[in-house]
Queue: 3 jobs
Job 1
Amino acid sequence: MGLTGSVLIISALLIPAFPSSQAVYDLVILNGRVIDPESRSDSVRNLGISNGIIKTISSNTLRGRAVIDARGLVVSPGFIDLHQHGQDEENYRFKAMDGVTTALELEVGTGDIDAWYAQREQKSLINFGVSAGHLAARMAAMREPVKFLPTGDAARRAATDAEIDEMKRSLEEGLKRGAVAVGFGIQYTPNASRWEILEMFRVAARFGASCHVHMRHAGVKEPGSSIQALEEVISAAAITGAPLHVVHIQSTGGPATPKLLQMIGEAKLRKLDVTTECYPYIAGMTDIKSAIFDDGWQEVFGIDYKDLQWAATGERLTKETFAQYRQTGGMVAVFSMTEEVVTAAIKSPLTIIASDGILENGKGHPRTAGTYSRILGKYVREQKALTLMDALTKMTLMPAQRLERRVPSMRNKGRIRPGADADLTIFDPQSISDRSTFQEPARYAEGIQFVIVNGVVIVRDGQLEPAGHPGRPVRAPH
């Protein structure tokens, strides 16, 4: 392929004296197959980038202080992950190597918006953002230490009216401080009343914030099925006017996933603002101490101890080891889905791709490092379950559109057009693939050749660059 994927950095001293009419860009990308889901364009073009912004798209040769020859490669908008729990340097490295330029923690969220953003400002490889979390607000209202997930009173008892009022104030303050959305993990708080959830939706609606919801129930067992759970949150959206986003539809729905997707499609036909997401794996992952594993979980998910895998060691659990780890807490993979369910969700025109990822010291779920490469390798190239254009739409444009009403800056992400942010992912469609596994989740994806965040190259020739911290906050006006 010759120059495929090579970069030429030209010293400022060596730049020739171009004619004054010839613009010289900070970075030029030549000869790439540029795919823009917004315009549905797919053609070989050259891009000129300056000051972190796409300035021009041209079939003519462009001049740049730095040049990437993307011959034989796809140039896509950078991938946007709406559901990424791991929000630190370790996780950002794996996201970048999977082509992600913006990773947002919108399901669990946080209780202190200002502190969360301050921790990452000018310290992040990729763009970052967070929701105001109902779980955090509930833990604080019940005077429980605010952790990732509740395990004490906040996980298991009904709230008083005074506590609900305190939660509302907490979410309102977070939204005033620029939270991207409101996050819910209702299955982790099974005794939260329907009224409590409605009250939180009412707060979100006042701010035009989407509600990113892990629903109350999973599976098909009635009462307490995923269908009933979806009815609850679609009703909450209809009553309050809050936009609804249902997280990981396939892991919550299991065999009922096609029915849930039908319900969402019908709600959209009736002009309700409802979206959803999925990830391309047959197992989820969560904390073994959470309320999800209270008595009756086997019947809910249609699985048993052998279908649980302890993240720290890779071992499958038994009744005895389940009881042991339930006392200590930690992440466990839950093999509760079939490949048929996962494929149906991925193929649906309703679903956004989002990872639900988190790695801690190299342990966790392979979706953190492999979600986007797996879609492009397994489901586009190998299985042809999706076209490349449709897959990229689910990974770039659709997540940007979900948020742009509340966060206007998202109108310049997920697109390749003049004026858009220079967040770009350049990959080889013939070799892109995920390498992370449940045994070895901390393995970089292959085939992502270049990743550019706000005009700065952070992955070059398939290797992470010491590029500093070009990631910027994704935040609502405040």
Job 2
Amino acid sequence: MVARLRLPFRNRTARPSPDAMTLAEHLGELRRRIVVTLVAFFAAATVTFIVYPHVLHFLQSPYCHVAGRHNCQLFITDPLGGLTLRIKIAAYGGLFLASPVILWELWRFITPGLHTNEKRYAIPFVAASITLFAGGAVLAYVSFPHALRFLGNVGGPSLHQIYDPNKYLGLILALMTVFGLTFEFPVVLVSLELAGVVSPARLASWRRWAIVLIVVFAAVITPSGDPFSMLALAAPLYIFYELSIVIGKLLRR
């Protein structure tokens, strides 16, 4: 009998099933995913550090839209303020640009432990989460000039504002992050409906309380505290609430 030829690289390409992997193999797989994620993050952060003037101009555009192109300067009072701002923008930009790689590595790590039907639901949910987060961030960016105009006028005409770029950047990024995370609301509701925790009929019966709670939640969580941003956040949340009821009914059918 001729012995079967065993290639030296055969075992390297074959990926063991999660049930057959030992704890050490799981930790090794996790370490490899983390290393790839960190490399992608630092590479993306380096690119953002290089193109920092363009990123700063993009984030400064809402302020220039309110104050005018020649009156929207940002002032620093700390010798290290410029370097701190550049590093902060590089970190945020690196996280944003590397997010596809991060999500892919996370997906590849958890995929072997999922059943076929779970994978079928996971892909649409991940795609919907990314799309909704991006939509929330865009809405926050578009509505930010209205928030700046309100915050600039609420103190009265005798006040002249000088913006610190670090605080300005913190406010706009906080607003975009809050909007993005809050836009995951329909994903959470549909997940609860699929899990049987709540039903579409139950959500429909809670509609009046949902309106009140959504408005209160938007008022509390909006970083800028202006009424325009609050309404810009509350209106989509209620629309998402109604869409979750419709989607839950369709999925049950």
Job 3
Amino acid sequence: MRSSPAAEREVLLTTRPLKLSRSALLRPAELEAVEEAALRILEDVGIAVSHPRLEARAERAGFRFSQGRIRLARRQVADYLEEIRGHAWRPRRQPASRRASPRLALHISPYPQNVHDLRTDKIVPLTAARLTEATRLVGALAYRGVITQAPGCPTDVAAPLQVVLQYRIAAENLAGGGEPVDAKSLESLPYIAEMAEVLGRPIRSLPVYVFSPLKLAGESLSAVMAFELRLDSVGVGSMPAAGSTAPVRPSEALALAAAEVIGSALILRECIKPTVHWSIGMHPFDMRGLAMSFGSPEALLFEMASCEADAYFHGRPWRPAVGNIHTLAKLPGPQAAAEKSAIMMLGALWGATEFYCGGVLSLDEIFSPIQLVLDLELKDHAQRLVRGLDSACDPGALLADVQAGVAEGFVGLDGTLDRYRDLYWHPGVFERRFLGPWRSASSPTFDQIAREMCRELLGQYYYEAPADIRSEIDRIYRRAERGLAAVT
């Protein structure tokens, strides 16, 4: 049952969202040292460029190579940063008294190749059939703030065809086809781009992933070079891991991260037609597990520091919010719940409205339907907290309610019934009953409740793409089967 429009207006007018502030991790002098270090790295070490067409264009643009690297003069980089900072965009804010509480959204990762199977409780490979079921579950949860996408790649077809089949499954099972998938390879990109056009979501921007440390190369760069005339923008990023592909000290890892994306962006800006954007980030690395330790306290701190450094280099205020809820947990349980809820709650209280990546375990290796349901429960928990409390008090109406409540109790009063649903959030999985009623209901566990919820959602979900869309997507996929058959 939804609250009435009048009740929703009343909540908006009398409720102030709860929001926390935090101090910066990095002081201005420390950020200036990071910038100085980045300038020195670009001048003395430079960016390795490994793409024949880009190398040729860079030479024509006036860049000079030495042993395959472009070293960028301090003044050249400083002028570029001054230009970026001079065009910094600052968001306008509503007055706090009129600002509604944010609606939180949960994004899905397109990268898992395994699924936590509902029937066997095992981690098994994502096949086309399993991905179809998982995608339908995502579609069934769109009404709860899930940004729809096929949650992984089917592994029962050849590697170059996997993402094309992934997008086909999304097109057939999600309204609008969901978010376009990452093509991953130059060979797959033409088919993904054609499907996106059919679905009315043309690809006008692509990423370039810089290899840490300081190497501009790879599939993403090749895709941009091949498709640049179709693009409006290109986003440059990297994933340096402190202690592995970057220095272990966080500020020094940030300096390397800044150097590699800023230097690469500067080179690309002079060599390709689309607008070039960039962002700075660093990640933690566990030398014992030989893996990026997402979900850890260090991951949260690194994301916070990255936001501050990125804002500094762009010349805009830093955002305190964080939204990366990855975990290295392999199954739903205490680790996944603790790590995801800690990040999500802090992020929501600091102003984040979008969280990545729901339902995902072991970084991006496993999609779990149960974890997706639990992540939505965590999101709704955070949503209710940041909404705050209704602060209105009407002395006259209150006196009448107290007089009636003293005589008859407050449960049945019209005011109680009108406002109860707006005040209290009712979880779908978390337990709120006392021991007796819980036992009377056969003592259900979180796992049992979440599994049953998934089964019910799958049983109720129905979507069929329009016939013309299905026909076009099928035609593209059949052509991809033939075109990618020889690609290994």
